[in-house]
Specification:
Chain lengths: 365, 255, 390
C-alpha cells in the first residue's frame, strides 16, 4: 500500500523571482537582449544627464532681463517674462480675470459632466450647450454689463488656441452627426450630398482650407459685409472638423446592432424618435473616445492658423523670437510650447483610453 | 375609454391579418412567392419550415420591417402601404418579439417598457409606469424593473421583451423564433408566458421550432419552404398526417 | 372582406415625403451655390480680378530654391505648379519610406520582451504624437538646422558628407558607360528570383520539399550585380562636395527646409505608424499563436504564415490613411519656405496672380484626386481581403 505524504510548498528558484529574476526575464533574457539593454543604457546615459542639466540644474530661473541668464542651462527667465503674453496674447492685462473666469467656469461645467453619479446632469449639459456660449462671448468680447470691448485681434496665445479648438468642436459635433445620419440615409440625394461634403474636406489639407477661408470666403459674400479674421478661421475649421466628426459618428452608427433600430420601429417610434431615444444615445456613447481623439487632432492642428496671421500659442511664441532684446532663446520657447501642448494632448488621450477600457466592460452600471 | 373604442372598432372586422398574392424579392432573389394568408381574430398560428425558407421575412413584412413589392397586406382593416399614418397605426396594433430580444441596453427594464407608451401613445409617465409594472408582474419579473438588460439572463430578457410589447396594448403579437437564442433551461419560462398569452385569446403568429408548444396552443400550423406556403392544417392532422413529401421530410428531421 | 380605408393626406406617403425632402435639399444646395457664385462674380468684377486659366501661361518672375525639373524666373505659372507638385511628391515619397521603416522598428520595439526597449519606444510614441507637427517642423528648422555652423566650419563625416547652415552635402553618383550592365544584372537577378520562387512553390506543392528562397534571393541580388560591376571595370564613381569659396560645390545638396520637413514628418508619422503596427499585431488573438505552436510551426513560420497575414488586414488600411495624412501634412512646408505645391502655387503664385478661386481649386484638386484614388483602392482592397463569413 502506498501512503501519500503531501509535499510541502517549496520556494521557486531564486533566478525566477525577485529583482534578479525580474532583471533576467526583462532585460537579459538572451545575449541579443543583453546587448540591446546595454546599448539602450548607454544612449540614455548620453542623453538624459545633459538634458536635465540644461533644463533644471544649470537653468536660469531668476531675473527680468537677458543679462540675468549667466548659467549654461536654459534661460527660463525668457518664458517667465513673456508668460502672460503666451497665455493671453495682447488682451489687456486689467481684463485677464474675464478670460480666466470664463475658462474656470467651462472647466467646472465639463468636470461636473464627466464625474459619474452627480445629479441634474441634463440641466448642466443644457446650460453648457445653450447658456455658456453667450456667457463666454460676453466675457471674452465684452460690450455687455459695462465690460470693455476687446477686439478679436488682441486675442492670442493659449487662450486663442483653446477658443479655436472648443468653438470648432462645438459646431463640428452637431453638424457631424447630421452628416453621418445623411451618409447612412436611404435617400440618394441626402446621401450623395453628405458623401461629397465629407470626402471633399477629408481629402484636402487643413492649410488649404484655411487659405480658402481667408482668401476665397470674402469673395463669396456680399461685398459690404466684412467677416472678422477669427470668424473666417473658425468657419474653415468647423467645416473641416465636422467632416472628420461625421466619420467618427458613422463608426458608432454602424457598430450598433440592426435589431435596435428594428425594435424601435416595431414599437411604432418614428425615425426622429428612434434616432433621438435609441440610436444616438448608444452610438454617441461608444464613439466618445473617437470624439476625444479628433478633438486632440484639432487641438494640435489649430497651430496652423499662424499661416493666416492669427496669434495662437505657437504663433505668439514664434513671433517672440524676433524681439531684439531676447534673441537666441528659441529652444526654450519651443520647449515651453511643446510642454503646454503635450500636457493637454497627453491627458486627453489618457482619458480617452480610460473611457475605451470602461466601454469594453459593457453596459452594466 | 378611447382604447376600448379602438378595440371595438377593430374587432368589428373579422380578420386580424390578410395577405393577398403577396411577393417579395431581395434583389433578384424571390424570397416570398404568392403568399395568401387570412388570420382570424384570436387565432394562434405557428409558422415552421427549414432555415432560409422565408418564414421570418413573412412576419417581418406584416409590420413593415421589410417592404413587400407586390400584393396586399391588410391589418385590422387597414392596408399596409407607403402611407406613414397607416404604418404608424399598424405598428401600434402589432407587438413583436425578436430572436435576439433587442432590448435597449442603455435603458433600464422599466424604461424599456415605458418608452413607446410615453413617446408613441403619449401617455403620462406615471400611468405608463403603472401599466409597465402590471405587465412585468405578468411575466413574473417585477423585481428586476430597475436593472439594465445586460444584467439579466436570456430568459429574463426575452420576458422583458414580451412585456415591452404588451405595454403597447397590441391586438396582435408576432414572435420571431423567440426561444432560439436561449439556453435549454430558460426556454420553458418564456414558453409559459406565451401559453398564458394564448389562453387569454391574443392573436398570435409565431415562428418557432418548439413543436410541443405548437401542439398545445396552435389553432393552425403553416409549413413553408423556399418562399412558399406548402401546407397548412390544424396541429393534430399536421403532425400525424402530413400531406406533402417536403413536410414529411422536415418533420422526420426535427421530431 | 377587408374594405379599403381611404388614404390620409398625400404628404403622409413615405415615398412622397422622401421625394419632397430631397427636392428641397437639392434646391437649397443649388440656391446656395448660385448665391455665392453670383457674389463671387460681382466681387471679382469690382476688384478687377480676371477669371479663367490664362494666367498659367504668364511669366512667373520668381525663383524657386529647389526644382527637380529645369526652372528659372522666365518660366510660366504653369511650370511653377509642376515644380511645386514635384517637390511635394519628393518630400512625401521620402517621408513615407522613412516613416514606415522607423515606425515599424519602434512598433516592434514597443512589443519587445526587453522592458527597457519597450519603455523607450513607448516614451517616443507618447512624446511625438502629442506634439503639433508644425511645432516639430519649427524646432528642427529654426532651433536645430538654422543654428548650425557656416560652410567653413561645417560638421563633416570624413570627406563624404558635410552639414552646415546651408544644408546637407553628400556625394553624387556618376554613372559611366558600362553601368548599364550592372543595372541589367540587377534586373536579371530579380527575374531569376521570381522564377526560383515560382519553381520552389511548385516543387513544395508536389514533393513537399522546401527551398531556402530568402537566402538564395539575397545571394543573387548581391552577387550578380557585383560580378557585373567588377567585369565592366567599376563604372561608377562619386562626385564629392568640395568647399569653394564660401560654399560647397558638387555632390547632392539637401536644402535645410527639405531636411527639417522630412525629419519632422518622419518622426511624427513614425510615432503614429508604431501605434498602428503594435495594435495590429496585438489584434491577432493569443489563441492564434498558441494554435500555431501546437501544430508544430516554429516561431518564424508562425509569424510569417499566421500572425502577419492577419495583422496586415488591420494594419494596411490604417497605414494608407497615415500615408495620405503625411502627404497632406507636407503642405506645412509653407511655414518654413520649402517650395512645395501649397507654398509656391497657393502661396507665391496666388499673391502675384491674384486668382484665388482657380488657384485654390487646382491645389485642392491635386490633394483630392490623390485621396479619392487611394481611398478607392483601399475600399477595393478591404472588400477583397475581408474575412469570408456567413
Amino acid at each position: 500500500m502506498i501512503v501519500h505524504t503531501p509535499h510541502p510548498d517549496l520556494p521557486p528558484p531564486s533566478t525566477s523571482v525577485g529583482v534578479i529574476g525580474w532583471l533576467r526575464n526583462n532585460l537579459f533574457s538572451s545575449p541579443l537582449n543583453s546587448v540591446f539593454t546595454l546599448a539602450a543604457i548607454y544612449v540614455l546615459y548620453q542623453l538624459l544627464p545633459p538634458f536635465f542639466n540644461w533644463a533644471i540644474f544649470d537653468a536660469n530661473w531668476i531675473g527680468d532681463t537677458k543679462e540675468a541668464c549667466t548659467n549654461d542651462g536654459a534661460c527660463w527667465v525668457f518664458i517667465r517674462v513673456r508668460f502672460n503674453q503666451f497665455m493671453f496674447g495682447f488682451y489687456p492685462p486689467s481684463q485677464y480675470w474675464r478670460v480666466i473666469s470664463s475658462f474656470l467656469l467651462f472647466g467646472g461645467l465639463i468636470a461636473y459632466l464627466l464625474i459619474e453619479g452627480l445629479p441634474k446632469k441634463a440641466w448642466i449639459a443644457a446650460f453648457t450647450v445653450i447658456g455658456y456660449p453667450f456667457v463666454a462671448y460676453a466675457l471674452f468680447y465684452g460690450g455687455f454689463f459695462g465690460l470693455e470691448v476687446v477686439e478679436t485681434y488682441k486675442w492670442g496665445g493659449l487662450m486663442l488656441t483653446l477658443i479655436l479648438s472648443t468653438v470648432g468642436m462645438f459646431f463640428a459635433l452637431p453638424f457631424g452627426i447630421v452628416l453621418a445620419l445623411g451618409r447612412q440615409s436611404a435617400m440618394p440625394v441626402a446621401r450623395s450630398i453628405s458623401i461629397v461634403f465629407i470626402e471633399l474636406w477629408r481629402g484636402v489639407p487643413l492649410i488649404t482650407v484655411l487659405f480658402m477661408s481667408s482668401v476665397m470666403l470674402p469673395l463669396f459674400i456680399p461685398e459690404d459685409i466684412r467677416i472678422d479674421k477669427l470668424i473666417r478661421a473658425l468657419i474653415g475649421i468647423s467645416m473641416f472638423q465636422s467632416a472628420y466628426m461625421a466619420e467618427v459618428v458613422r463608426g458608432g452608427l454602424q457598430a450598433l446592432p440592426k435589431g435596435q433600430n428594428e425594435a424601435a420601429e416595431a414599437l411604432g417610434l418614428s425615425y426622429w424618435q428612434s434616432m433621438y431615444l435609441i440610436v444616438l444615445p448608444q452610438a454617441l456613447k461608444t464613439v466618445i473616445p473617437g470624439i476625444v481623439n479628433t478633438f486632440i487632432e484639432l487641438f494640435k492642428d489649430t497651430s496652423l492658423v499662424m499661416i493666416i496671421g492669427l496669434f495662437d500659442l505657437l504663433s505668439i511664441i514664434q513671433s517672440s523670437f524676433t524681439d531684439a532684446k531676447w534673441l537666441g532663446f528659441s529652444v526654450e520657447g519651443y520647449f515651453f510650447a511643446g510642454l503646454v501642448y503635450w500636457i493637454f494632448c497627453f491627458s486627453m488621450s489618457q482619458y480617452s483610453q480610460h473611457l475605451e477600457k470602461k466601454l469594453h466592460k459593457g453596459h452594466k452600471r | 375609454m378611447t382604447e376600448n373604442a379602438v378595440q371595438q372598432e377593430s374587432t368589428n372586422t373579422p380578420l386580424a391579418i390578410e395577405l393577398k398574392d403577396m411577393h417579395k424579392w431581395y434583389g433578384d432573389f424571390h424570397v416570398l412567392k404568392n403568399i395568401n394568408l387570412r388570420v382570424k381574430r384570436g387565432e394562434r398560428i405557428i409558422i415552421c419550415g427549414p432555415s432560409g425558407c422565408g418564414k421570418s421575412t413573412l412576419i417581418r413584412c406584416m409590420n413593415r420591417l421589410e417592404v413587400h413589392q407586390q400584393g396586399e397586406i391588410w391589418v385590422d382593416g387597414i392596408e399596409l402601404d407607403d402611407d406613414l399614418k397607416h404604418i404608424e397605426k399598424i405598428r401600434r396594433d402589432i407587438g413583436m418579439v425578436f430572436q435576439q430580444f433587442n432590448l435597449f441596453p442603455h435603458l433600464s427594464v422599466l424604461e424599456n417598457c415605458c418608452l413607446a407608451p410615453i413617446w408613441v401613445l403619449k401617455k403620462p409617465k406615471k400611468e405608463a409606469e403603472a401599466t409597465a409594472m402590471q405587465y412585468l408582474e405578468r411575466v413574473k419579473i417585477p423585481d428586476q424593473a430597475d436593472k439594465y438588460p445586460g444584467q439579466l439572463s436570456g430568459g429574463q430578457q426575452q420576458r422583458v421583451a414580451i412585456a415591452r410589447s404588451l405595454c403597447m396594448n397590441p391586438n396582435i403579437m408576432l414572435f420571431d423564433e423567440p426561444t432560439s437564442a436561449l439556453d435549454p433551461e430558460m426556454i420553458k419560462e418564456v414558453l409559459d408566458v406565451m401559453v398564458d398569452l394564448a389562453n387569454e385569446g391574443m392573436t398570435m403568429l409565431c415562428v418557432t421550432h418548439e413543436m410541443g408548444f405548437a401542439k398545445s396552443v396552435a389553432d393552425r400550423v403553416i409549413f413553408m419552404d423556399s418562399g412558399e406556403i406548402i401546407e397548412e392544417n390544424d396541429p393534430e392532422s399536421f403532425f400525424s398526417n402530413p400531406q406533402s413529401d417536403r413536410t414529411k421530410l422536415f418533420l422526420s428531421q426535427i421530431l | 372582406m377587408s374594405k379599403p380605408v381611404k388614404a390620409t393626406a398625400w404628404w403622409n406617403n413615405a415615398h412622397n415625403r422622401a421625394i419632397m425632402f430631397q427636392v428641397l435639399l437639392a434646391a437649397g444646395v443649388v440656391l446656395f451655390f448660385f448665391y455665392i457664385g453670383n457674389n463671387a462674380l460681382h466681387n471679382m468684377e469690382q476688384r478687377g480680378i480676371t477669371t479663367g486659366f490664362k494666367f498659367l501661361n504668364q511669366k512667373a518672375g520668381f525663383g524657386i530654391i529647389q526644382h527637380l525639373i529645369p526652372y528659372n524666373e522666365g518660366n510660366t505659372y504653369g511650370r511653377t505648379f509642376v515644380v511645386g507638385l514635384l517637390n511635394t511628391i519628393l518630400v512625401s515619397v521620402l517621408g513615407i519610406i522613412c516613416a514606415t521603416i522607423l515606425g515599424f522598428l519602434i512598433g516592434v520595439a514597443r512589443l519587445s520582451s526587453n522592458w527597457l526597449i519597450a519603455k523607450i519606444a513607448a516614451v517616443y510614441i507618447e512624446i511625438f504624437r502629442n506634439l503639433p507637427l508644425l511645432l516639430q517642423i519649427f524646432f528642427w528648422y529654426f532651433a536645430v538646422l538654422r543654428t548650425l555652423p557656416s560652410a567653413r566650419n561645417s560638421l563633416h563625416f570624413g570627406q563624404w558628407a558635410f552639414l552646415n547652415i546651408r544644408g546637407i552635402y553628400v556625394p553624387r553618383p556618376v554613372y559611366e558607360p558600362g553601368f548599364g550592365w550592372v543595372v541589367a544584372a540587377f534586373g536579371l537577378s530579380i527575374a531569376t528570383i521570381i522564377i526560383i520562387k515560382l519553381w520552389a512553390k511548385k516543387r513544395q506543392e508536389q514533393t513537399g520539399q522546401q527551398f531556402p528562397v530568402l537566402l538564395s534571393s539575397l545571394g543573387l541580388l548581391i552577387i550578380l550585380p557585383a560580378i557585373a560591376y567588377v567585369a565592366t571595370s567599376t563604372p561608377l564613381h562619386w562626385e564629392m562636395p568640395q568647399l569653394k569659396g564660401f560654399n560647397f560645390r558638387g555632390g547632392i545638396t539637401i536644402i535645410p527646409e527639405l531636411a527639417a520637413l522630412l525629419l519632422a514628418l518622419t518622426i511624427y508619422t513614425a510615432s503614429l505608424i508604431a501605434e498602428i503596427v503594435r495594435s495590429g499585431i496585438l489584434s491577432v488573438s493569443h489563441g492564434q499563436t498558441e494554435a500555431a505552436h501546437a501544430l508544430g510551426l516554429r516561431p518564424g513560420k508562425t509569424l510569417q504564415l499566421v500572425i502577419i497575414p492577419q495583422a496586415m488586414r488591420v494594419i494596411i488600411p490604417q497605414m494608407t490613411s497615415q500615408y495620405l495624412n503625411l502627404v497632406k501634412n507636407s503642405s506645412l512646408a509653407t511655414a518654413i519656405g520649402y517650395p512645395d505645391l501649397v507654398s509656391v502655387f497657393a502661396g507665391t503664385t496666388l499673391n502675384q496672380a491674384g486668382q484665388a478661386i482657380e488657384i485654390i481649386a487646382m491645389t485642392m484638386g491635386v490633394y483630392l484626386t490623390l485621396s479619392l484614388s487611394i481611398s478607392f483602392l483601399m475600399n477595393w482592397y478591404n472588400a477583397r481581403s475581408m474575412l469570408k463569413e456567413r
